[in-house]
Write a structure and sequence with these properties.
With 330 residues, the chain is mostly helical. Helices cover 64% and strands 0% of the residues. It has one domain (2-16, 31-263): Hypothetical protein af1432 (Orthogonal Bundle). The protein is built from 16 helices and no strands.
């Protein structure tokens, strides 16, 4: 079965695609699977990881929204994966590699979205960035400290999925663009649902290029990338589409993200700040996995590992347990 996949990739993929049989391999050599390619195995390992499951209770933009249809970090991740696969399919790139990178790109995200990330980056002397933490999760923290032992291409794609990254494969570049397309468009839906925005407030220039409905905007972006990149050694948007996406992103930061962040900034700073100080002063109270990392990585780094692993709900519960007096307590 795996050989048939290799044959299809040789015949059908772009000459610029990353073929499964040409992977640079894993950090630790291991016997190959007889049925799945290495990228397919990576995808499966990520899906069945604990950090992937926790994404369902991590904030995307709106913390604890009153409704069932807001995006979480998990639904955002699935959204990125779907857009990335669609782009890879039309560009004849490796869909399995795109999917694995997309599913793993936010595994290291903090509770309370980017607000939580900024809080940890400010208070921890080691600094904190979710893309670096996502790599640390798959390399070191998953499977009780053994890591997932993913391929080089997936690990590099996870690390370089942000605008400042330097993707090494076209598939990683696909995921970087898919992430941008996903969060801009579905965050608009959430913002309208939450009352932060009205559809008529969206800037007319970008909307005239992308479209009024979410599906229109996503389709327009995918079609533009296809026209611009098919058969080429790069993946990019046209200048017009790139400018429309940048303008819409800037609008969302001004109108939605900054306002939504203000609503949880104080609470996130208070909770994560208190939890960080508590465990830095009492590292012996960390769970066993993290105790085993203290000698090698130091207290600040390991406390960040623990705090960033928390879901929103778990962080709130731990904060209440440690700092909120219970009824009947003295």
């Amino acid at each position: 079965m795996k050989e048939r996949i290799y044959e299809r990739e040789r015949a059908d993929l772009s000459p610029y695609a990353a073929r499964s049989e040409e992977t640079k391999g894993r950090l630790k050599p291991e016997p190959p699977c007889s049925m799945r390619t290495d990228y397919q195995r990576d995808r499966d390992r990520i899906i069945y990881s604990k950090s992937f499951l926790r994404l369902k209770n991590k904030t995307q933009v709106f913390f604890a929204p009153d409704g069932d249809h807001y995006m979480s970090r998990l639904t955002h991740t699935l959204d990125v994966s779907q857009i990335a696969r669609s782009l890879a399919r039309c560009l004849c790139l490796n869909e399995d590699l795109c999917e694995a990178i997309a599913l793993g790109h936010d595994l290291g995200h903090t509770p309370f979205g980017h607000v939580g990330e900024r809080v940890l980056d400010r208070i921890a002397p080691c600094g904190f960035h979710h893309y670096e933490q996502s790599l640390r999760v798959v390399d070191k923290l998953e499977k009780d400290g053994k890591g997932l032992n993913l391929t080089y291409e997936v690990r590099s794609g996870i690390l370089n999925h942000t605008p400042a990254g330097t993707p090494e494969t076209l598939e990683a570049e696909v995921v970087r663009l898919a992430d941008l397309i996903a969060y801009i468009n579905h965050d608009i839906e959430d913002a309208i649902r939450a009352g932060f925005l009205k559809a008529e407030q969206l800037p007319k220039g970008p909307i005239s290029v992308l479209g009024h409905a979410t599906s229109e905007r996503i389709n327009a972006a995918i079609l533009d990338i296809y026209k611009e990149s098919y058969g080429k050694p790069y993946v990019k948007t046209s200048e017009q589409m790139g400018e429309a996406l940048r303008e819409l992103r800037a609008f969302m930061f001004r109108t939605v993200y900054e306002q939504a962040n203000k609503l949880i900034q104080e609470s996130a700073e208070r909770m994560l700040g208190a939890l960080y100080t508590y465990f830095v002063e009492r590292p012996e109270e960390l769970p066993p996995l993290y105790l085993g990392l203290l000698k090698e990585d130091g207290v600040p780094r390991v406390v960040c590992d623990y705090l960033s692993s928390m879901s929103d709900r778990y962080a709130v519960n731990i904060f209440k347990k440690l700092f909120v007096p219970r009824e009947g307590s003295v």
